[in-house]
Amino acid sequence: MEKEDMNIVIVGHVDHGKSTLIGRLLADTGTLPQGRLEQVRETCRRNSKPFEYAFLLDALKDEQAQGITIDTARCFFKSKKRDYIILDAPGHIEFLKNMITGAARAEAAILLIDANEGVRENSRRHGYMLSMLGVKKVVVAVNKLDLKNYSREVFEEIQREYGEFLNKLAVSPLCYIPVSAFNGDNVAAKSERMPWYTGKTVLEAMDDFPSEPALSENVFRMPVQDIYKFTRDGDDRRIVAGTIESGNVKSGNRAVFYPSGKSSVIKTIERFPVGIIENSSAGDAAGFTLTEQIYVRRGEIMTIDGQDPPLVSSRIKANIFWLGKQPLEKNKKYSLKIGTEKTGAYIDEILSVLNSSDLSASAGEKIKCNEVAECIIETDKPIAFDIAEKLGATSRFVLVDDFDIKGGGIILSNVQEVEQDIREKVLLRNYKWEHSGLSAEHRAERYSQKPVLMVITGENNAGKKQLAKALERSLVENGRFAYYLGIGTFLYGVDSDIKSLNKEQLNHREHIRRFAEVANLMLDAGIILIVTARSLTASDISIIKMIVSGEVETVWVGGEITTDLTADLVVESKNVPVRENVYTLVELLKDKRYIFKF
Fold first, then answer.
1. 3-class secondary-structure state, position 505
2. What is the number of helices (H) and of strands (E) in the chain?
3. How is domain 311-420 classified at the architecture level of CATH?
């Protein structure tokens, strides 16, 4: 019978013996390659160093030099019941984010506490992070009891103190185990030095961890990693590729992509170097061709029609563990990465800040290093996700600042948006969309351009229309397919029913929605669409980006921006010739590869 697989992370404060415990497990279960133990012993002898089981694991030179684990080491060993992947997570406070990386991949955890030092602040932090990441299957190993003469009283006091803390987190360890990893007591074999302990060894406790339902039995989720287009030797395949996080899929299933809501039937499933296969499941890296060529992007989540879809929102409620030296601030722009998606984000509200050492909560405007907070996050664009209690892989995210990961978290729920009704209409529209017989790539190759909506906005009399028409002329005269659409033309045409009611202010959002739907049609036709509108806001652009299934660039004309809009480009109109601004806009289009061969 095929054995189960399980990922287990071992965490604890620095020098509490995690690497030693893993080394001992490898040695005592006969998992080490033949001669490895003797090789390490001989290396220690030649260097006049006392042998440590941790040296079996710590392969990095600077780790052995400093005596601390810097990165998350992975190793493999087997018991009679399971094949294990063991993740040795760093315990030093400077490497907490590496510990989060390790724990995020784990189904269960062994939390190590040094009997000589007792429960430390980091021990509490690690317990909280395991809880926050949804790791509920935990064993607590109280290590180095040999330094306390195998004292039952010391063990039971640590069990009492740490048990009270974990109870507040709703974490109930399977058991507490008194251990001496260096001497092998209660690691893989029962200890004769602690006759007062009659419970399980670490190895027995690991084998008793209940198994998770196979990921392949869950709903299908695959973050889109990339889209590959082939042209050589008549090969016109367009492959949507990624690694399947959960569920299974077969050719003929209808795939639905979120947050766009676009769908198409799976034509073939392909896996390198095997070629075409009939089905694929969790853990597989696979590629998919579709019967209809739809435009999907990296970062979308591929699902199967008929299964529970992910949530889609630009406002989420989340728990964040912050690791940056500078505090996490409200309204400062960060990058949020979830799956293969990356988008700008900021903290809209800090609901509460939790001290992960004593679990006391307080209000705050900032989140300091090593603090945990419950927050409302606003993202620049809608993202697809699941909530932590249902599916871990698509609910965990990291926050990036200055190109470095500064924090991580899990999504607790979505937050109802003002534009939720518009989003639902867009999802239905994309699902029901009747696709053209021509792909977006085919049009791009023929037109030497990619479609984009260029929104030119600014105050009255800033020269918006003059610039837009001059840009349109320049593009068309150079062989591009471009069109200028003034908002007034739209207002007295498509929106004449609203205009006649004289309720423009009340129906401003509906004006924007209808305009964006028309723009979406023109972008689907491969057009570079140039529009002008007065003093658009961040909310207006948010609605437009929600509806338009393509790229949107915003240009503010007139110098200083007078709304809350964040423009992609600001151009001055006074004392600047129109041709110079046209040149600037053309360069923007070229730099972002909307036009080529210009």
1. coil
2. 15, 29
3. Beta Barrel (2.40)
Sign (positive or negative) of CA dihedral 578, 582, 585, 591: negative
| Whole-Å CA distances, 216 to 136, 221, 280 | 21, 10, 9
Distance in angstroms (rounded) separating the CA atoms of residues 110 and 137: 9
> How far apart are the C-alpha atoms of 480 and 474, rounded to whole Å?
9
480: tokens are 């591009």
Copy the structure tokens of residue 583.
Answer: 């040149």
Active-site residue identified among 314, 535, 542, 549: 535
Q: Do domains 311-420 and 436-591 have the same CATH topology?
A: no
- The mean predicted confidence, pLDDT, of the chain is 83
One-character DSSP codes across 263-274: EEEEEEEEETTT
The span from the CA of 144 to the CA of 177, in Å, is: 11
CATH topology of domain 4-207: Rossmann fold (3.40.50)
Rounded alpha-carbon distances, angstroms, from residue 429 to 319, 414, 544 = 33, 22, 15
Domain chopping of the chain, boundaries: 4-207, 216-304, 311-420, 436-591
575 backbone dihedrals φ, ψ, rounded to 5°:
65, 15
Q: Which pLDDT band, with edges at 50, 70 and 90, does 574 fall under?
A: confident
Query: Cβ distance 531 to 456 under 8 Å?
Result: yes
Mention every residue, 6+ apart, whose C-beta is less than 8 A from residue 245.
Answer: 215, 221, 222, 223, 282, 339, 391, 393, 394
Distance of CA 538 to the CA centre of its chain: 25
Please report which helix (H) or strand (E) contains residue 583, including its range.
helix 578-591
The pTM of this model reads 0.65
- Quick check: 228 and 236 in contact, CB under 8 A? no
**In the block, which residue shows the tokens 């992509």?**
257
**CATH H-level, domain 216-304: superfamily:** Translation factors (2.40.30.10)
DSSP state of 449: B
- What span, in angstroms and rounded, lies between the C-alpha atoms of 69 and 3? 30
Verify whether residue 216 is a known catalytic residue. Answer: no
Q: Lowest-pLDDT range, 262-266, 278-282, 354-358, 449-453?
A: 354-358
Q: Would you identify the CATH topology of the domain 436-591?
A: Rossmann fold (3.40.50)
Q: Which has more confidence, 253 or 372? A: 253
